[in-house]
Amino acid sequence: MRVMGVDPGLTRCGLSLVEGGSGRTVTALDVDVIRTPADLDLARRLLIISEAAEYWLDTHQPSVVAVERVFSQHNVRTAMGTAQAGGVIALAAARRGITVAFHTPSEVKAAVTGNGSADKAQVTAMVTRILRMQQAPTPADAADALALAICHCWRAPMMARMAQAEALAAEQKRRYEAKLKEQRKAGAKR
Prior knowledge:
The chain is an alpha/beta fold.
């Protein structure tokens, strides 16, 4: 599975590409941080991010894009910018028929470090270790984008099994309810 991890942001937007192998084996293929000047018009900033994401999508052809879900932030302006940056990337992926998955920061931290409230230094250290990198990825947005891709590689099989189990349970429930309905009809005819 080839996963493009996205740590969205208007000032710095982390992009990564990770290849998931068997088990928990993952390999980093590329990582970058797209920067936009704070004094630039919002629409132009989003265009720069969108164009970079489109280039990545066309060049790397990921099978899925994992984007950090904006969960909560104290600064509404920052949260809006983060959501907008993630939105233009999700849209670019959707236009190409690429699946988009959203993961909360605590899901990512828990997947990579085992602790849903780990700090950035812990995430960076674990990403460096998991990917067997010689140097820690910098800035933190690069490490976060890699962590998102790793998280998805590791969580996707479990999420697929859960979806399968839920679908099977729903089908069994439907059959059981249909059987009960038939039994009630048969009982009423007697």
